[in-house]
Design brief:
Helix content is 35%, strand content 17%. By secondary structure, it is of the alpha/beta class. The chain is globular.
């Protein structure tokens, strides 16, 4: 009951943006800042109106930048605020080995393999073209990534900006302490990942590839058929209104 009272009192929504690197490529940082400010103001007005219509308190938080890996794939967008590993790259998605999606993905021609060190899990590699003219993560310094995260935190997100900063261990690694010292006052949280040629670990979510590798992978891909068996029960269960356990 205590948890539900807090949830009812402190309502939150999380309107997020994705494809930010592509937006900057076409409209610049100034354009992004303008859209953030105008969008944030619009969301506040909508939240006020809808809260009044439903007779509930206004949301105490309304905007965020989430990782947005899966949703971005559907839209063909770069994930959240992150720049791509390269213009062409593999985006890897993990699925349970008994997932209904596995067989359609195999038939479609996507590479499906066992997940390293995770029995019962498969990894699907999806070739992606991020678009002409976009900069890659290797071309964006650690400091520029932190500055972009801070810009989004200050002009858009009242929830935390999800950001994993990639950095060169040799040239930027010694600067981590200084970076955290400065940005602790401008960010709610941040993650760092060393950029190494072989990848930080096997089957990373993003792996840069050449244009030739991309085209070869795409030649094997056909139209995806997602006519899955519907194993759902005919009985419709009532929706969860509150969290009464570890799940809602």
């Amino acid at each position: 009951d205590t948890t539900n009272k807090v949830m009812t009192r402190n309502r939150r929504i999380g309107c997020s943006m994705t494809g930010i690197a592509q937006f900057i490529t076409s409209r610049g940082v100034g354009g992004l800042k303008e859209w953030c400010n105008r969008g944030y103001d619009k969301i506040q007005k909508l939240d006020e109106k809808l809260s009044e219509d439903f007779g509930v308190p206004r949301s105490i938080k309304t905007t965020s930048i989430k990782p947005s890996g899966t949703v971005s794939l559907l839209a063909g967008a770069t994930p959240g605020m992150h720049y791509p590993e390269s213009r062409y790259y593999f985006r890897r998605v993990r699925l349970p080995s008994d997932s209904d999606l596995v067989e359609p993905l195999r038939k479609c021609g996507y590479q499906v393999e066992d997940a390293h060190g995770q029995p019962g899990t498969l990894v699907v590699s999806i070739p992606v073209d991020a678009g002409e003219g976009i900069r890659t993560s290797k071309e964006v310094s650690m400091w520029e990534q932190l500055s972009l995260a801070a810009l989004l935190q200050e002009n858009w997100a009242d929830n935390q900006v999800s950001c994993t900063v990639t950095f060169d261990p040799e040239t930027e690694g010694p600067q981590l302490e200084h970076a955290l010292n400065y940005y602790q006052y401008r960010l709610k949280g941040i993650s760092f990942l060393p950029r190494v040629s072989a990848g930080a670990y096997k089957q990373m979510p993003y792996e840069g590839i050449s244009e030739e590798e991309y085209r070869k992978a795409m030649e094997k891909v056909s139209t995806l058929d997602l006519k899955l068996k519907d194993n759902r029960s005919e009985e419709l269960l009532p929706p969860d209104l509150f969290c009464d356990s570890s799940k809602c």
